[in-house]
Amino acid sequence: MAFGALAQGPVAFAATSQQAPPATAEPLPPVSPTPQSLTRSGRDVTVTGRVLLVADDTTDAAARDRLVRELRKHGADRVDIVTPGNVPKASAGLLTVRIGPAARPDVAEALGDVAAPDRAEGYALRVNASERGAQIALGGHDATGQFYAVQTLHQLFVRGDDGWKVAGAQAVDFPSMPLRGTIEGFYGQPWTHAERLDQMDFYGDVKANTYIYAPKDDPYHRDKWRDPYPTDKLAELGELVNRATANHVRFTFAVSPGGSICYSAPDDRKALKAKLQALYDLGTRSFSIPLDDISYTRWNCAADQAAYGQPGRTAAAKAQVDLLNDLQRNFIATHEGARPLQMVPTEYGDLTDTSYKQTMRATLDPAVVVMWTGTDVVPPAITNDQADGASKLFGRKVFVWDNYPVNDYGNTSGRLLLAPYDKREAGLSEHLSGIVANPMNQPYASKVAVFGAADFTWNDTAYDAKASWARAMAYLAGGDRRATDALLVFADLEHLAPTFGTTPWQSQAPELAGRIAEFWKAWDAGDRTSSVKTLRTYANEIEDAPAAIRAGSVEQGFAADAKPWLDATQLWGMSMVKTLDALAARQAGDKEKAEALLAESEALQKQARAVRVDPARNTWGKVQPKVGDGVLDSFLIQADIRLQLWDAAGGSENLALKGTASASSVEQNLDRLSARYVNDGQLGTRWASGYSDNEWVQVKLAAPAEVAAVTLAWEGACATEYQIQTSLDGTNWSVAATQHPDSCGNDVIKINSDSAVQYVRMQGVKRKTTWGYSVYEMGIYGSPAA
């Protein structure tokens, strides 16, 4: 995908972190990652049909080849490569591009007063239109800097009235963090070889320099770590190493022996070094030893107890340090070009000082890079103070393994995580050695968050999550306006970002939620016709987004990754349109038409709930894809209830919010799972019961009411059978409905109530799991009794 199209794209991306051009000049195209400095140098220059490219043996080959491709793609029919001393005298009028080390005399002269940074991977760029002809200078501090200069240049191509031009710009740029990229560290189906090759090209595009190969379900990474890779798999890894190198990405090979290694056994250490040597022979120069997700309170062999003592935190740290120091000093240090060893500690996600961390801090070789996930497995935020604290605990700047957008755990069931990379504090570059994002099992969909992570780690102080998110969509859409807008609409419906706890760290569908809130405000104020028209326009965008995404401009891999979610989104969008039309018809006095439209909407909702992620790449299996859950479906419920109660009250409200909840039990008496969370209006909290079938949760309404519907938003521990019961006095109960849901999701139970009630209960009959019942939210819709 070419960034150059971003300048022609649909979304007005604010370059607030880039220096503003003179008032008389055209604004520069947006560049991602955001450069440290990007300003206007003068007028745009034309890409001539013949271009002179001045390069020599100090020019990075990958940068040169990419530059040639970009020039040819943007108007150059012929690119002549010449050395600095052999520029033709008759070159006046031709665009001349110089690329190489910033200190090379001709590059330095062309850069003029644009000084290249003395920083690893840094570069300087200058586009200059002069009387002697148009010149572009690309000077790198090192080979990677040259490559990144080209990556910036190809975003500066703009289409003029008479062909392609290059925006008159100058840049001085370098990464804020040394290590930037991803760790393929999830559980479930690993990426395919073709998908990994594509990822290496993507990382090159976004100036990410690190890819850590650590798929949990590769048997040779974890369970069979002693065994050499089969010949065909080794050949694939070799091709992947080469593709990564061509994109200036450090292929980092990780092997995780902690589940079975005998730390003190010479044969195990020999096997581990042989595994690393096989990848070194393929060209790998970065290595990692993850020791996460293992037991460190037992030994795998009796010899380790004799060598390190009784199992426990201190002994485990001693054994691990002994192994890691051996690898750093007797493998890494003895292999030319090998970079410092990386490791993931067993205690990787907190800020508590323990004997394990104390031993690590005191005895681990200072060269070893320690990874840390934040204050939790999935941290809702990472602050400078937290990073400082972690660095002090391990005695070095930590390297963050950021578990976003990974979706391999229970709270992500049925979800694509398409919210922007966010809640990481500006200034972290002063406290970390880098960040790698742990992506989803869906590699192409992961590009949304990884794009942002690359942007943040390149220039964290200038990072704008919202602007970067829009640019990520434009990147995936190849700059196509309609497709970019469709991706933004779709991603809003996949915005919820869970943690391992009960509270998501990013909310679901904030754009849609805001529009719905404005709709009901206008509707209740009497502005019903225009409010329906406005929201219906956006509902049409939801309905149309899947087709626009599949039309061809968006990467095909993204459409494949998102297929079940796109299928469901179209149905939910169609349902929303029908419901809005039903509201409009009822407002116009056509009750029969409203009822017919509502029936169509309900049929579409049923189809949407029947969609399954199949085949499933994730460990959560064939589940219903979640689309705008808690927002879009809640709107449909509320609209449905208002239509049902039109004559009685002109609408309905969620009466549960003003009620008082109680339950038969609470799981392990944990306050965070207590009954009051079932009607707090927050989908990030929940009630959970004890572990038996005959459990219940109920809400006492603030006053008796005529109830029309009950909604239940289930967590993964749901019911295969339950009843909705109602009561006026809390003693005498009636069964209003019996339900047999086929999956855990959002249930809508309509009730034909002839009399007022004050208590509504979900009475469990049979559990789906060995756990109890767990409900995020219980809604009770109706009108207070007269």
TrEMBL record:
The active site is at 293 (proton donor). Residues 644-783 form the F5/8 type C domain. Keywords: Glycosidase, Hydrolase. It holds the Pfam family F5_F8_type_C. It comes from the Bacteria. Residues 17-43 are annotated as: Disordered. SUPFAM superfamilies: (Trans)glycosidases (SSF51445), beta-N-acetylhexosaminidase-like domain (SSF55545), Galactose-binding domain-like (SSF49785), Hyaluronidase post-catalytic domain-like (SSF140657). Residues 178-461 form the GH84 domain. InterPro entries: FA58C, Galactose-bd-like_sf, GH, Glycosyl_Hydrolase_84, Hex-like_dom2, HEX_bac_N, NagJ-like_helical, O-GlcNAcase_cat. Belongs to the glycosyl hydrolase 84 family. This is Beta-N-acetylglucosaminidase domain-containing protein. It comes from Streptomyces yanii.
